Amino acid sequence: MHTGTSTTHDTHDAHDHIHPPPEGFVRKYVFSLDHKVIGFQYFFTGLLIMFIAGSFAELVRLQLTDPNGAIMSHTAYNEMFTMHGTAMVWLVLIPLVTGALGNFVMPLQIGARDVAFPWLNMASFWILPLAALILFSSMLWGGPHAGWTEYPPISLADGTAGALWCLAIFTIGISSTMTGLNFMVTIMKMRAPGMTWTRMPLFIWATFATALMNMVATVALSVAVGALFLEHVFNVPFYDAARGGSAVLYQHMFWFYSHPAVYIFIIPAFGVVSEVLPTFARKPIFGYKMIAFSSMAISILAFTVWMHHMFPSGIAPWLQLPFMILTYAIGIPTGIKIFSWMATIWGGRIHFTSSMLYALGFLITFTFGGITGVFLASVPVDLHMHGTVFVVGHFHYVVAGGAVMGFLAAIPYWYPKATGRMLNERLAQLGFWLFFIGLNGTFLPMHWLGLEGMPRRTATYAGFAKAFPDAVFWNQFETAFSFLMAASIGLLAINVIWSLRHGTLAGINPWGARTLEWTISSPPPYYNFKKIPQVFGRPYDFDQPLPYRNTDNELDEFPEFGRVLMPIPQPVGAGA
Amino acid sequence: MAAAVQHLSGHEAIAARYHDVDPVYGETRDLRLLGFVFFLLSDCILFSSFIFAYVYLRISAPAWPPFLNGHQLPWFDTSFAAMNSIVLFGSGVTMHFALENWKHLNKAKFNGWLIATIVLGIGFLLGQAHEYSVVGISWTGTTMGASFFTLTGMHGFHVFVGVLYLTILGLQANRGVYTGSKYFGLTAGTLYWHFVDVIWVFLFFLFYIW
Amino acid sequence: MSQSPSVVRFKGLGPGFWPVTAVLALLSIANAWYFLYGNIDWIMPGSSVPVTDRASDIDGLFKFMAVFGNGIMIFVAGYVIYFAIVFRARSTDSPDTVGVQIHDAPKLELWWTVLPTLLLILLTALSINVWYKIYFGTKAPALTMEVVGHQFYFEFRYPGLKTSVFSKTEPMHLPVGVPVRLLITSTDVIHQFWVPEIRLKAAAVPGLVQNLNFTPLRAGTYDIACSEFCGPDHSLMRGKLVIEPVAAFNKWLDTENKAAAAGGGALNLAGGSAAAGKALFAQKCAACHNNPPTPFDQKLVGPGLLHITDDPAHPTLVTGKTPTPEHIAEILQNGFTGPIGQMPNRQANGLSDKDIANAVAYLISLK
């Protein structure tokens, strides 16, 4: 029997066995079982689809430069915003934050050699291109038109394209559910010896909370769109009022998933911020337990607030109250996190890397989006704001200004670990400013346009512009700023590709960070850890030696910020 | 942060539990068991969501059974479905004995009980086919048909997959894939089969009793 | 390197912390002042002179949230920027310099949990108060009317009014000072009835009726918009609401009733101009019927109308009636729904009596 204090090779646990390396191009890069390669695959696929979905958004914005519609018919516009939303939600955001980030970072941070079910992981990835194919093929039949929510009865007019939309969403749902399951088992069962729950990095808490929601909520969506598919193809009456069905039923099932979905986007970003801020402020995360606890609280509460998307939709008035109250309640753990992150940078020694800039920008833009969410949570005020571009502004602040910003902070942070090279810092910082300014310029005016009376999903707005002539200026303003965001993502793609060849060599730990992935080489060997390290403390105490034993490499006890070349091994390290 | 109390965690804890059997196997089994349980949990959500839809539609309907073309649809015949349910629950009992016999290294009895399970499972499916032909409502006419056929159809599909799964397990067991101490596949199959039974308890109540 | 890193030191909560806090507090007070006493008509139309009693309640809630929400935003953004500046790494730092190694501060954390919670409890109470008034009203409604959503127009039905009022041709009317209940539903897909100055909306759902309660306070003309995506012309589904003194409202109802009585009989088809009808056909009918008109089987959305009066293969109209001018006019008036498809009625197409007469004249002139 071992206790964990001795070095560990007398217990032959399965994770002491390192399997032989994969051979051949196909095994190594196409049908790879390695979570790191799968992470790359999700990353590049997600980025590619982001370009497509982002182009659709730019077409939407160009259309709105003229109140009578500048470039396309109503039908084409409706198809554009529908495809933009659908692709972004299911084929970009979730694959990037869960599939790319979760896959690459999580096993490294817990000291594991891979996820619990690598074959399932590979299958989950390959579902993504399949689902994308199905979704984009729907455009051959005219595409779906009723928004990423595709409410019946209007979505039933989409015919074959509508049925394909349902099929695509159902398909990608399988991937999310399986990935959630995979990550939950990995985190519960495969952490390094000594890494108790309260010694886990906060990114792992975030990944766990997200995986829980992925695993439980996605199936409800599959049922919502599955029933819609049956109604499209076989005329089965779940939603048809004439035969006893209910359009509001769809909304219940759809939002029961889609509200947790938005937390699936944002909680990994919360995890990233909780890693990035301490590293670049050189001090511990403030309120570790509250941040960990609040991630779990949010992931549970996420299932209890869905009707706030339906306040004016025809639910019984008495039902609106508990959902209003729970929606307010979910703001408390979120607020606690924001304040804790602010306390994390207070009294620090802040290094303004591009990663840190994104994390700091996140604190501002996500908070703004969160506060407009509180406005929307109040039933009477929501009755004014629902269905207007105010809502579009709100959710882009929390999604683009929250989830995407968190993801953009993660790229420069973990790219050196993944590739062994640093991203071009100057280009990345320029990218930050373009994104931050572009985001605010595009989405801030939507708040007052919405309050003044501009509904969402409108291909033209001449009637509204007659009452509020400024609307034309603000729409053009928003379109102009949206191109800054597009440029930022373009620069990111260039940076990622250029730096693969020309970036500065990174070394093991360029940031002086303290989680386990920074104890192995950059990039890590295919098996991650030759010896599974032992953990005896939390990673965030910059004035304490690294809390690890039995590491593969000799490490500095107090890793310093800014070591970008391979360190010369020190004679006294973090051994026994 | 001092290295105070050493808690066993992760694979260290699992290896400790299986140290006298085979820690490598124990670890893998624990992972797969948890993974399979989570899979069944997500399958639970699948049925729960459709059940939610059925309950919602039924509660908000002005009359139940609903009217179609001026005539009220007939209630379901509980007695036949009750008999069919006994067939299905019986197959759960036989599966339990199959697994027990395997654990006690009784291959012949295991085969017997497993075959009985498969036969009863097929019997249930045939019973459902009969039920579908006599039930007198259509899938597309009203929400009653929509919910009945979709829910019991999904359940029937799960039973069908289960029958295939148990057949494959039986063949594998007889080929020597499982031993007296390593038989996770059989555990998973039994769990799945019991799960299918539990779902049927709810469906039977919701369509034939309520 | 096994030497402990050097921890940064500074006085109090940071250089200039309290002056910065004072500035942020002043900004918050300025924000509060602006929202409570300033003119916010530019973002909340009609807020300085409320159009309805509910609008005034909702604006009150909005202002409460703007005061505290914007205030919190000012402090968060302000402190983040201040901390970023004051606690930045200096080039004179040694490479192992670290920040203050604190993990938590229980009293601070308690305050920043309790205060927002109390604020939200207060907000809940205020919201529930307004919520109740909206859905249940404060007085029994003196006027209950129906709003019905269609693709792509609203239909308004008043008690005592024989016909409906359609948003494509006329505004909705409401009287000042009278508590009103709107019953809202739809005949096809989900729509949403919204008047920004009223601040209320409700989805028009087929198979459901929703209700909204309020009392108009200020006369004027306001925009109605559909705010739930309902199809290709969703952005065109708008209308006008006229709020007027009770006497004017009653007079309007009277006029409507008289027009309904007069127009209730057969349309006067004499004097229809085929030339005008031809122009009208190109403008309003060509979207669904081939122009120039074609034989029946050359369909676009609807059948070709070239031989509408003399087609041996189709001796009757789709309604099954003989193709007389009166029967043709009926289809134009009421629209048609059947296996062949759906044709909108005169309200949806925006056809006046004259239009119908001209269209009929044109169609019967075709051979």
Structural class of chain C: alpha+beta
- CATH fold description of chain B: Four Helix Bundle (Hemerythrin (Met), subunit A)
Gyration radius over CA of chain C: 32 Å
The percent range for helix content of chain B is: over 70%
Shape of chain C: elongated
The total count of strands of chain B amounts to: 2
* H-E order of chain B: HHEEHHHH
The proportion of strand residues of chain B reads under 5%
Shape of chain B: elongated
The two chains with the largest interface, and their residue counts, are: A-C, 97 and 91 residues
- The multimeric state of the shown protein is heterotrimer
What are the secondary-structure elements of chain C, in order, as H or E? HHHEEEEEEEEEEHHHEEHH
Mean pLDDT of chain C: 90
SSE order and pairing:
The complex is a heterotrimer of chains A (576), B (210) and C (367).
Chain A: H1 25-30, H2 35-63, H3 74-110, H4 118-137, H5 159-189, H6 202-234, H7 247-281, H8 288-301, H9 317-345, H10 354-377, H11 379-385, H12 389-419, H13 425-452, H14 462-467, H15 470-502, E1 534-535, E2 548-549
Helix pairs in contact in A: 2-3, 2-4, 2-15, 3-4, 3-5, 3-6, 3-7, 3-12, 4-5, 5-6, 6-7, 6-8, 7-9, 7-10, 7-12, 8-9, 9-10, 10-12, 10-13, 12-13, 13-15
Chain B: H1 10-17, H2 23-60, E1 67-68, E2 71-72, H3 78-103, H4 107-134, H5 143-175, H6 184-209
Antiparallel strand pairs in B: 1-2
Chain C: H1 17-37, H2 53-86, H3 106-136, E1 143-150, E2 153-157, E3 165-166, E4 172-175, E5 180-186, E6 191-195, E7 200-204, E8 210-214, E9 220-226, E10 238-244, H4 246-263, H5 274-285, H6 325-334, E11 336-338, E12 341-343, H7 346-349, H8 353-365
Parallel strand pairs in C: 1-5, 4-10
Antiparallel strand pairs in C: 1-2, 2-3, 5-8, 6-7, 6-9, 9-10, 11-12
Helix pairs in contact in C: 1-2, 2-3, 5-8, 6-8
